[in-house]
C-alpha cells in the first residue's frame, strides 16, 4: 500500500503584505480570541526580562494542566484539527486496547515502504531519542507501550491561525511546546513528554517565481511551504522543466523545516551553498503569537538566526522564498567498491549511479586506498561536487569501502577527465578499479517520497557522532594521516565510518547567503563531514548499556576532535551529548544568537535539545538518559 500526499499548488496571494500562500491569510484575530484569554497574544514590550514561569513546564498529571473544556475550546479555534494520538506501536502490545496483531505486522512490513510513518502525527525517526517507550516489535514480551516522550496533543496545522493559537495557548498555559514537521530529527527534537505539538507537515505548496527581487538579489526564486519535503520540490522541478533549487539528498527530509533552519546540505552544496544560503525571506510565527516576515529589510536579527541557527528555537516558520536557477541541472556520477573480503560480501547501494565491480584486496592495501580517497576528497569539493566514502565492517576483518562521486554539470568527457587521477592514485595504492562507468542523470527526478531508511527502527535510526574535517588537514597530511588512522581504528572496533565530502564556502554561498547568517563558520571551511555509526540498534538496550555504548563511541570521536580543534560539527546531524555544543555548532555566532533568542522569546517557549538558549533547561528522565521522556525543568543553580 502506498499513501502519497499530492502536492497542492496554491496560487500566491499577490499584493497582500508578504503572504506566500493562501493558508497564511487565515490569521488569529482579536475578535476570534474574544474572552478566550488562554489564546491571547503575548506582549514583548511588557514581557519580563528574565524567565518567571514555573520551574517545570506543566505536565498532564499537574493540577495546572488545562481542563478538558479549555482543550475543547482550543480545538474549536483550530477548526477541529486538535489530535490526541497514541503511539502506533501500541498495536504490538497485548495489554493495550489498541492491540491488533494484523496492524502490528503491517507496521513492521508494508508500512515501512509507504508514506504511513510520514503521515503519523507522533512518529519520530529516532526511537531511542524519544525514550523507546513503544517500540514496534514482533516480540514485545517484557516491554511496555506508553506515551513516554511523545507529545499529548497535536495541532495538525492548516493555517497560520492554527499555529498562532497553539503558540499562544502553550505560552499562556506554561506548556511544553514542540514543533514537528517530518519527525526526521536524529535526537528527537520533534518529541517531548507532556507537550503540545505543532505539526507543520501538511502546510504544502511550492511555486516558482521567474523574477523576484530582494535587496540586491534579482532573479528567479521559489516560494516553499514549511511542510515541503525534497521529493515534492523535485517533482515540481521535474514538471517545470528548466529550473533548479538546492535540496537535501534524502528525499523525505523536511526541506521547508528543520533542514533549512539548521543549515541543510545536499548534492548541490559545493556549487550553490547550503539550504540556509538560499533563503531570501521567511514567514514565521514568533513566541508572542505574531506572524512576521524576516528578510534583509525587516526583522534582520531573526533573518540572521533562522538561516542556520537551528529549528525549534526562534519561531515556527510557515513558508519561505528561496533562490532558484533558470536551468536544468544534470549530475555526473559513479560508484566504486573495494573490500578485504575474500569471497561473498554484502555490497552497499550504488546510490543510483553505475558501479564498477568490487576490487578484492588485502587489509593494508585497503587502508592505503582509503587514504588515497580521503586525499582526493578535496578535489571533489573544489569541483563543486559531493563525495561519499563509507567503510562498513562486516565482521572477521572484512571491510567494504563504497565511494560515490557526484558532480553537477559534469558531462561524460569532463567527468572522466576529473576522476581519472583518483583511479590512478587508487591503482598506485594497489586497488585497480576496472572499467569505471559513469552516468549523467537529472538532478530532479520524479519520486513518491518513500525511502527504506525513513521510519523508526530503520538503519538511519542509529547512534552516531559527527565531526567536520577542516581544509587545514589537506594542508598538513600528518594531520590527515592521523585522522585516517582514527577512522581505521573505529572501523576495526565495528563502527561504520562514513564521510560526506562537501564544502559550502562563502564564495559558493553567493548573495545573500554570504551576508552574515548563523551558519556554522566551521562549515565555510570544511571538506568532509565524518559520521561514525554504531551499527546495531540502541533503542532495545537497557539504560546502563546505552550509556556505556555512548561513552565508548564518544571516546573514539574525541580523538577526531583533538586532531581538528579549529573545527566543529553540524547541528542537524550531531550527538545529543556533544560537548561544548554552542561553539561546536555556531562558533563565534553563538553570543549573537543567544541575544536574539532572549529578545524574541523571553518566555522561553521554544525548547529543543542543543538549541540556542536550551542550556538553562533539562529533560528530567527516570533513567538519566538524554531522551525526551520526562518533564522539561529549569536546571538547578
Ligand atoms: C533519513 C535522514 C536523512 C537525512 N539527510 C540529510 C541530508 O541529506 N542533509 C541534511 O542536511 N540533513 C539531513 N538529515 C538531517 C535533517 O536535516 C534533520 O533531521 C532535520 O532536523 C530534519 O528536519 P525536519 O523538519 O524534516 O524534521 P523534524 O524532526 O520534524 O524537525 C526537526 C527540528 O526542526 C524544527 N522544525 C521543523 N519544522 C519547523 C518549522 N516549520 N519552524 C520551526 N522549526 C521547525 C523542529 O522543532 C525540530 O527542532 C537527515 C535526517 C534523516 C533522518
Ligand atoms: C504592550 O506593553 C506595553 C508596555 O507595557 C504597553 O504600552 C502596550 O500597550 C502593550 N501592548 C498591547 C497590545 O497590549
Ligand atoms: C477536535 O474536534 C474534532 C471535530 O469536532 C474532533 O473530531 C476531534 O476528536 C477533536 N479533538 C480532540 C482532541 O478532542
Ligand atoms: C485488526 O486490524 C485489521 C486491519 O486494520 C482489521 O481488519 C481487523 O478488524 C482488526 N481486528 C480487530 C480485532 O480489531
Ligand atoms: C520474546 O522475548 C522474550 C524476552 O526477551 C524471550 O524470553 C522470548 O523467548 C521471546 N520469544 C520469542 C518467540 O522469540
Ligand atoms: C491532518 O490534516 C491534513 C489536511 O491538512 C489531512 O489530510 C490529514 O489527514 C490530517 N491528519 C490527521 C492525522 O488528522
Ligand atoms: C528546457 O531547456 C531546453 C534547452 O535549452 C529546451 O530545449 C526546452 O524546451 C526547455 N524546456 C522547458 C520545459 O522549458
Ligand atoms: C567469522 O568466521 C568464523 C569462522 O569461519 C565463522 O564461524 C563466523 O560466522 C564468521 N563471522 C562473521 C560475522 O562472518
Ligand atoms: C602538521 O601537523 C602536525 C600534527 O598536528 C604538527 O605537529 C605539525 O607542526 C604540523 N606541520 C605544519 C607545517 O604545520
Ligand atoms: C557574495 O556573493 C555575490 C554573488 O555571488 C558576490 O558578487 C559577492 O562578491 C559575494 N560577497 C562576499 C563578501 O563574498
From TrEMBL:
Naturally occurring in which organism (per UniProt): Canariomyces notabilis
Matching PROSITE patterns: FAD_PCMH
GO MF, any single term: oxidoreductase activity
Stored InterPro entries: BBE, FAD-bd_PCMH, FAD-bd_PCMH-like_sf, FAD-bd_PCMH_sub2, FAD-linked_Oxidoreductases_BP, Oxid_FAD_bind_N
Signal sequence range: 1-18
The family this protein is said to belong to: Belongs to the oxygen-dependent FAD-linked oxidoreductase family.
Pfam families in alphabetical order: BBE, FAD_binding_4
Keyword terms: Oxidoreductase, Signal
Domain of life: Eukaryota
Listed Gene3D superfamilies: 3.30.465.10
Domain FAD-binding PCMH-type residue range list: 147-327
Protein name in UniProt: FAD-binding domain-containing protein
